[in-house]
Design brief:
Blueprint (H helix, E strand, L loop, with lengths): L1 E2 L2 H17 L8 E7 L3 H17 L3 E6 L5 H13 L3 E6 L9 H7 L11 H8 L9 H12 L8 E5 L6 H10 L3 E5 L6 H5 L4 E4 L17 E4 L3 E3 L2 E3 L4 H4 L5 E2 L6 H11 L8
Parallel strand pairs: 1-11, 2-3, 2-4, 5-6, 5-7, 7-8, 8-11
Antiparallel strand pairs: 9-10
Helix pairs in contact: 1-10, 3-4, 6-7, 6-10
Length: 277
């Protein structure tokens, strides 16, 4: 069994971005703007992670910290200013927003070309019609980066995604189709799920159920990409019961240490697309 660890993929992305930024004077480097409303502990933890990763590659960050009582109009005005600021190349709005904020208005307000987290529906629309301007959601792109890094062939392969959300399953299916894979999208109401997944070349799981997928869902040649992040009595784990599955598949991403490890680097890459051309 081959373990498809995310760290090597993330490190490769960071090295490209760091090398690109080193060729630019610090004063002229593009910026990432973080928009945070309030001081939720999980937002602050995520902010620290983003700041650390930006520091590692030399990407300037601007944190727009707003109070809990900010109005929708005030937040929209701040986003408008960031949209018009040429120094800002990416905008990341932490969600969920307070109930008093019109979140739909906010996600549509972020300029499509600066929407590093693919909140604006325009990006999904562009992705669906193969418009090269599209910024893909970070998790699906992280999956694609892992498959590419480890040389997993996609053309003509039978790929099953067990997730139909607009954040993961649907955009990922389009990205795989672009690589000429044959894609089946399954979900919680799919009948005979194990029968479908066990015939696939690649299985991508994202159901949010700890260790739900056992050996019966795979075959000895399966490449398994586990997107799930769950917690049980032993700590963090994925959707796949890796203890019983690992020896019976060709390759698998660990949890933790797999897709999630790559996602934050993918987000930063959306600020610096030139680094990958």
């Amino acid at each position: 069994m081959r373990e498809l660890r995310g760290k090597a993929v993330a490190d490769a992305l960071k090295e490209k971005m760091k090398a690109f930024l080193e060729r630019i004077d610090e004063a002229d480097r593009p910026q990432l703007a973080i928009v945070r409303v309030g001081e939720r502990p999980d937002d602050l933890a995520y902010e620290r992670t983003v700041l650390k990763n930006c520091g590692l590659i030399g990407l300037p960050v601007r944190v727009e910290a707003l109070k809990d009582d900010v109005t929708t109009d005030e937040l929209l005005e701040r986003i408008r200013q960031l949209n018009e600021d040429d120094a800002v190349r990416g905008i990341l709005v932490f969600r969920p927003l307070p109930d008093s904020i019109d979140e739909q208005a906010v996600i549509r307000a972020v300029a499509m070309e600066k929407d590093v987290d693919c909140m604006n529906p325009q990006n999904l629309q562009c992705l669906m019609v193969s418009d090269r301007r599209a910024i893909a959601p970070c998790t699906p792109e992280a999956v694609m980066r892992i498959l590419e890094y480890y040389g997993v062939e996609l053309e003509g392969k039978n790929v099953v995604i067990v997730n139909r959300s607009t954040v993961i399953g649907r955009p990922l299916s389009v990205m795989l189709l672009e690589k000429n894979a044959t894609v089946t999208v399954c979900h919680s109401r799919t009948r005979n799920l194990a029968e479908i997944t066990s015939r696939a070349d690649i299985v991508i799981t994202g159901v949010g159920r700890a260790r739900f997928f056992g050996p019966e869902y795979f075959n000895e040649n399966s490449v398994v990409i586990d997107i799930g992040i769950n917690f049980d009595e032993n700590g963090a784990c994925g959707d796949v019961d890796d203890k019983t599955v690992a020896d019976g598949v060709a390759a698998i991403t660990p949890v933790p240490g797999g897709v999630g490890t790559v996602t934050s680097s993918v987000l930063l890459s959306h600020v610096l697309p030139e680094a990958f051309r």
